[in-house]
Amino acid sequence: MRVLFLACLSPKTGNCTTAERIRNHIVAAGHTCVLYDTREFNSASDVSSLMTQEPRFEAALAIHLFKGGRLLLDLGVPFGVVFGGTDVNEDVKDEHKRAVMEEVLRKARFAVAFTDALKEQAEALLVCESKIYVQPQGIETKVALHFSWSDFLHCTGVRTKHVENLHVFLLVCGLRRVKDPLYLLEAFEEWHSQNPLVVLIIIGPVIDPVFTAEVEESVKRSVGVFLAADLSQEELHAAMQKSFALVNSSLSEGMSAAILEAMDLGLPVLARDIPGNAAIVEHKVTGLLYSSPQEFVSMSRKLLDDRELQERLVRNGKNYITTCHNSMKERITYQKLVETLH
């Protein structure tokens, strides 16, 4: 079977990583799966013209009910959809977008949510039949072998003679407003002034250029907070492994791949207490959830001083990934679901 797969493919984002992994699952089942960026299409008619080309697509799949799903509505082939996060967390607030997403759910053979909470939220906010399956993201990490931590810090602007004593809090996110990377800036600056060995490094691809300029300007004026140049996935995983903790400060999340990757790499996680994060981070068990910048600093201080807490979070986080985010289980689920598109 030849499957068209639409997703937002901004390089080095969680969405892109997820899409490539799902495509690999489909290809491993013997199908052809062609991945396209939703931003290449202005309307459903653009996708329709693609469908007339030979060899023809027999089925379709999309990540994000509005951005991707709306483009599949009139194709005349069976399709499935995967919830992204902003579709349920943000787009449902718009009457038009919600109506479109309900239509997508009506016509889709199946829909996949990453968490039970996301499924429940979708069922509460959208009119949909019980065709939503829950499949947590499968996680795979790979660390670059020849990554220089000191070079990375130097290029980022971190100047210290005591690299080995530095405690780096790494905030990994695509630079757009919903990720709220400046949320902790003032509180972290104040903490850094008291303890110069703690630094916050924000790293991720540019998604919103206007917002990125705001972040650059704010970081430039700050002390103890830095903005790093984007890295390849393997280099990013190496940087995560060298950091003290992974930070998430998003306003909303579907399921943060960075949080899951950090757990897999043995890194403590400090995440903003929002539904998407609370679904995968159990407070004081697999990570720490904070509700304000001040609470973040308080928890970070505690984490720095409590070796037993560090080890417990790392151990439990790794066990959670092994148990709940197994890539082979994810593969089996998607291969079974794609069979329903025949």
UniProtKB/TrEMBL annotation:
Instruction: Tell me the InterPro entries matching this sequence.
Output: Glyco_trans_1, Glycosyltransferase_G1
Q: Which Pfam families match?
A: Glycos_transf_1
Domain Glycosyl transferase family stretches: 163-319
Instruction: Report if keyword Ribonucleoprotein is assigned.
Output: no
> In this entry, which stretches build a coiled coil?
none
SUPFAM superfamilies registered for this protein in UniProt: UDP-Glycosyltransferase/glycogen phosphorylase (SSF53756)
Q: Which domain of life is it from?
A: Eukaryota
Its keywords, alphabetically, are:
Glycosyltransferase, Transferase
Q: Which Gene3D superfamilies match?
A: Glycogen Phosphorylase B (3.40.50.2000)
Any one GO MF annotation of this record: glycosyltransferase activity
Q: Where is the signal peptide?
A: none
Q: What is this protein called?
A: Glycosyl transferase family 1 domain-containing protein
